[in-house]
Amino acid sequence: MRLFFTRLFVSERKQIAMIADEKSPARISHRIFATRSLRNVGNGMNEKSLEVLKQYDFEVNRVLRGRGGMILNTDRGVKLFLECVKSDKYYERENDITRRVADSGFLWVDTYVQNSSGEILTPDEDGRRFYVKDWYEGKECNVRDLKDLCRAVQTLAQLHLVLLEVAGEFSGTTEEQNEKDVKAKALSGIEAGGETQLRLMYTRHMKELKLTGNYLKNKKKKSEFEQLAYKNIGGFFSEAEKAVQLLAGPQFQERLSYAKKTGELCHGSYNYHNIIFSNGNTAVTNFDKYKNECQISDLYQFMRKILEKYDWDIQTAYKMMEEYDKIIVTAPLQYLPSYFDATEQEKALFAKIDYERYDVTAITCKKGTYYPDMSGYLFDNMVPERLGHLMVFYHRWKDEPNQVLTTYVLRNYKGKELKTYEEAKKMAWDDMKLCGIDIDKCVYERKWYYFPHVFEKDYADGWYEKVESMQGQLNTYYAGEIMSFGDMEETVQYSKDLVARFF
Predict the structure, then answer these.
(1) Confidence grade of residue 180 (pLDDT, cut at 50, 70, 90)
(2) How many domains does the chain have?
(3) DSSP conformational letter for 57
(4) Same domain? 79 vs 164
């Protein structure tokens, strides 16, 4: 879907410029901390409210106003202290999503801090409820700095990958949220009455463009602006027609259905106020409006707000889309067509990848029998004629006498018949006995596809040169074992070099 959504946005651009109705000045904040008095801090918070913090396992060193509450410098990092103004379920819902996002590897989110009772909401003596979140000292994304914008879009792409991992667990929204998201639904394509609100909105605006064009056509005396508008409105209308056609097409409808079926998640309120650059990291905050819908809506909403401030500069739009759409593929490339919209060239080249088939077992030895104190390499078995025999048994730790031993057997070789799993296992264990090792039991076994490679003819035909020439096409990059060698050091070094070359 990477190409479809790019086309969709471009076809909308000029129309959006004509119908944009959300004009807000740029608001750039470089400071998290303010220096005003604590009296009457948002929502009636004051010094008395701080008594609640005694129920948390941290020490407060400094308290300042900010973000609608109090920002706390503590011995456990920066925190944000706020009073509850919504239902308990509202905060519980956000806590669930931020916790799962953090657990899945995206650590820089404003997760809730539990009090001494293990709760995220803490009442005071008057019955008011408060909460504490992890926070970050830094600056908001600067909408006038293209580097900041690109960094924000890169972060969004990373966040979306994590949200895909937790998809399905948080589909749907509360009734409270549904009521507050009516406008957002109109922009994101939520289905209503058999059609999408997005299509209905664009159809309505297209009709408005037509009426405006007819009005200008029939006006005899036109101002300079009206003359320019009439001259260009036909192009705007043509772009609007293309956008409506795409929204009505089966591809868009299928994409919406897929998002609903899989529980695809987006942030729901990804804007520069919710992006904080802190100590070389990018924090994403305020997940309370997350939704089960197409993730591309996050990018659309972010770019729409930004481009309003850039006079709808198409080059700025292209730059942000490019940053979002960059993909580094490190998974086995021969399987890429099964999970990716691979091109014909990708399919043809990656179908040529082969690999070695190893069987790996972890075994224990019978008590009282010989137990090796180091690894063993059977070089006489590392020839085609000894296919299926034990090649290596691995002794990992020098100071652990009762550890498992790991055995390695190769089951395939070019020009040789593939050994079955059972016969390879028997030969390996017989070889262990010849080494004087009496096996007790197998505690783990795995079929291991190792050392991806191409054959001599494909190598000579320039397979690697062809793949390298594809690096960066469609903003896609290839790394991993096939692009270097089967050891950790070589693979990491290639990946570092890839980033240095292209990023």
Answers:
(1) very low
(2) 4
(3) S
(4) no
